[in-house]
Amino acid sequence: MSERIALDLSELRAVTAYAVACAEPALPIFEQARPDDRRPHDAIEAARAFAQGAKRGKAIRDSAWAAQRAYQETRDAGQTAASEAARAAVAAAGAAFLHPLAKATQVWHILGPAGHAAYAFELAGMAAQHPGADPVVVRVLSRYPEAPGGRGRAGELVRELDVLLRKG
C-alpha cells in the first residue's frame, strides 16, 4: 500500500488553477486546426470552475473524456501540435483528481498540462509559455516523488519542469 500525502481541497484547487494556466495558452493551436471543436476548451473551463470553487465531479470527468476523444481524433489525423494541445486540456481537467498517494505517476496530474502544452508549442514551431507556479503548487509537488521516466518528449519536458520547480 502506498504512503498517503496530506492534500487539502484548497491545495487541489491551486494545483488545478496552475494546470489551467499551463494548458490554456495552447488552446489556439488546437482551435486553429479544429475551429468548431470546443471539447478541449470545455475541459479547461470545467477545470477552471473547480479551481474557483465549484464542485469536483461529473462535469469535469465528462469534459475530460470528450477532450480525450478530440486528442485521439487530431492525433489520428496527423495534427500532432493540435493533439498535444488537446492532451494538455485533458490533463488540466485531470489535475482536479490528483490522488494523495506517494507515487511518481501523480506528478503528471500536477505537471502534465505544462508538459503537453510545451510540446504542442514546440511542434507548432512556437516558443512555449511557462506560467509561474504558485508556492502552494511547489509545496504540493515537493511532497511527491520526482516525475517518472518515459512518455516521450512531453515526459522529458515534465521532468525538466519538475527539476526546475523543486530547485525553487
Brief account:
The chain has 168 residues and is mostly helical. 65% of the residues lie in helices and 0% in strands.
Explain what this protein looks like in three dimensions.
The protein is mainly α and 168 residues long. The protein is 65% helix and 0% strand. The chain is built from 8 helices and no strands. Helix 1 runs antiparallel to helix 5. The model has no long low-confidence stretch (mean pLDDT 95).
List the helices and strands and how they pair.
Blueprint: H1 9-23, H2 27-33, H3 39-51, H4 58-76, H5 80-94, H6 107-123, H7 135-142, H8 152-167
Spans of at least 5 consecutive residues with low confidence:
none
Shape field: globular
* Radius of gyration, taken over Cα atoms and rounded to an integer in Å: 15 Å
Mean pLDDT: 95
Domain Imm-5-like: 13-93
InterPro entries: Imm5-like
Protein name: Immunity protein
Organism: Amycolatopsis halotolerans
Summary keywords:
168 residues, mainly alpha, 65% helix, Imm5-like, Immunity protein
